[in-house]
Specification:
Elements (H helix, E strand, L loop, with lengths): L19 H35 L3 H35 L6 H28 L1 H9 L4 H14 L2 H17 L9 H20 L2 H18 L17 H32 L5 H36 L1 H4 L2 H37 L6 H14 L3 H16 L4 H19 L9 H26 L8 H26 L7 H26 L3 H9 L2 H11 L1
């Protein structure tokens, strides 16, 4: 592979394809990215509908709490296992001669899921008021009552979310990326449809019903992918794969429990700053997650099966292939996330106005959501780079390291969040800044520890890519800011056209500017992204995989 391909050169692109493994990773990442694009678009549609009907009131905060609790249990169980344990272990049984063992392992996990989660759901239904008070006791009594009612609707989603997660881990290990890539899209679709059709008749309860419907749709989506598998009711505690999963999952579980406690404390602290604070945080988080899902999340999931296999080859070939795959992923993330962060920082207010400021979402809500979003963006690059680094440890089946770093990260977060309150009343911004500090600490720690455990990534052009991406994105930011200023001095036919122009004209101009300067500086990763959309390269990749 040429170190400095020029993607405008006809000589380089057709005759300079990616190596087979990296092309496979990139193709998988593109599939996952498509799923993420649809998911994020539906997520924005969900928030548009939510903000239109309910604004950023205490009702939205109530739903956010009622939705977060089932998601925390998903993160703790299947969500925590997918990358750390399920994909690495499932991948070792993915060959055709081992498929019967793979079906057995999956069947047992699904059986265990029902056995553990059913009592949890029942207890949650009984003690909903107490759970809500623990998480968001700073809200008013009326809001807490609504939150408890919504929680009783959303709690059964715990079962379906974890079912879908286990099946997604199975399909990812088999390199069947298409269906699980759209899991989150189906989840958001359920909320959007129920909100649009039932918000006026059922009020905020339509959101909770939509969440439950979305979790059911996730399971239904996976069913065509597991056609031909032999899943059944199984109890087999002694299978060696179950012990491996348990060994890998134990540190993750401990870390996630601490993280759940931390998030619970965070929401409790946020609720003490006002009923609307949690709503503002949730809207800002959805917008911030859009670029993360299209870049780091997609690439991190795509590289995991390849890294897991390369980790097994280490004894024969050393860490060269492993480090090359990981560094390639980090370079791709940097090429995409750096301009996204700078562009979003400048366009934060126009984006919030375009997406959310309709119906019951008021200008003051736009002001606060923009403020929170810009503070969240401080940590977005660290969050994006952290995901591939964490998955590198999971691929090596070293789950304790990221778990322990995560536990210390929670302590860092709480210290950073609570320190300002020693001198003045707590503010919402304190919690967001503390989150950014935690993300930066975690990413730096992961990189340092990986350097010590696996080897140096010097010579893999990380700084080359980072400096050029930052320079090009900075120039792009200046162009976006100037273009945005220009759009505000144009008399548009109406406010909607003006809002669309204030987002799409500067962003389009910025993208063209960024691509131009990255091409001038001959950054290979951008050329590779262009290669992926060429039919000839797609054809070669498909042929190699088949």
């Amino acid at each position: 592979m040429s170190s400095n391909p020029d993607f405008n050169s006809k000589e380089n692109l057709p005759h300079d394809p990616l190596p087979e493994e990296l092309a496979s990773v990139a193709r998988a990442a593109s599939i996952i990215a498509i799923g993420n694009i649809i998911s994020r678009v539906l997520g924005l549609a969900r928030d548009i509908a939510k903000s239109y009907y309910f604004g950023a009131t205490g009702l939205v905060s109530a739903f956010n709490i009622a939705s977060k609790i089932p998601m925390w249990f998903y993160d703790l169980l299947a969500g925590g296992m997918i990358n750390a344990a399920l994909i690495p272990v499932f991948s070792s049984y993915s060959r055709s001669e081992n498929r019967s063992e793979l079906w057995l392992i999956t069947s047992f996990l699904l059986t265990l899921c029902v056995a553990i989660l059913t009592p949890i759901v029942i207890l949650g239904e009984i003690f909903a008021e107490q759970i809500v008070w623990l998480v968001s006791g700073g809200m008013t009594f009326e809001t807490l009552e609504v939150t408890a009612k919504l929680l009783r609707i959303t709690l059964p989603a715990i079962l379906f979310l974890n079912f879908a997660g286990i099946l997604a881990g199975l399909l990812y290990s088999l390199k069947r990326f298409a269906l699980p890539a759209f899991n989150a899209a189906m989840f958001n679709l359920g909320i959007v449809l129920c909100t649009v059709f039932f918000a006026e008749s059922l009020g905020v309860h339509a959101l909770a019903i939509g969440l439950l419907a979305g979790s059911v749709l996730q399971v239904a989506l996976q069913l065509p992918g597991i056609r031909g598998t032999k899943l059944s009711l199984v109890v087999d505690w002694h299978h060696p794969a179950i012990r491996r999963i348990a060994r890998l999952y134990l540190p993750i579980a401990l870390g996630l429990i601490v993280d759940m406690i931390s998030r619970g404390i965070s929401y409790r602290l946020a609720s003490s700053t006002g009923d609307q604070s949690i709503a503002w945080m949730d809207y800002a988080t959805t917008i911030m997650q859009f670029p993360l899902g299209l870049t780091s999340t997609a690439i991190s999931i795509a590289i995991l099966p390849t890294l897991a296999r390369q980790a097994h080859w280490t004894n024969r070939s050393g860490n060269k292939d492993f480090l090359e795959t990981l560094s390639h992923a980090l370079r791709l993330v940097m090429v995409l996330i750096v301009p996204a962060a700078i562009g979003m920082l400048i366009l934060a207010r126009p984006v919030v106005e375009l997406i959310l400021e309709h119906g019951d979402f008021l200008p003051n809500d736009t002001e606060m959501t923009t403020y929170v979003l810009r503070l969240y963006l401080v940590g977005i690059i660290a969050a994006a780079l952290d995901l591939p680094l964490v998955n590198a440890f999971y691929a090596r089946q070293e789950a304790w390291t990221p778990a322990l770093v995560g536990v210390v990260g929670v302590i860092v977060y709480l210290a950073a969040a609570l320190l300002p309150s020693m001198f003045r009343p707590m503010q919402l911004g304190d919690l967001i800044i503390a989150n950014a500090i935690q993300l930066c600490y975690h990413a730096v720690s992961m990189y340092i520890l990986l350097h010590r455990r696996v080897g140096s990534m010097r010579g893999h052009r990380l700084m080359f890519t980072a400096t050029r991406a930052t320079l090009a994105a900075t120039i792009m930011g200046l162009v976006i800011a100037g273009t945005l200023w220009g759009t505000t001095h144009v008399s548009w036919p109406n406010s909607i056209v003006g809002e669309l122009a204030s987002v799409f004209i500067p962003s389009t101009t910025g993208i063209v500017c960024y691509i131009t300067f990255m091409n001038i500086m001959k950054v290979p990763e951008l050329a590779q992204l262009f290669q992926l959309i060429k039919p000839s390269v797609k054809h070669k990749t498909t042929k190699n995989e088949n």
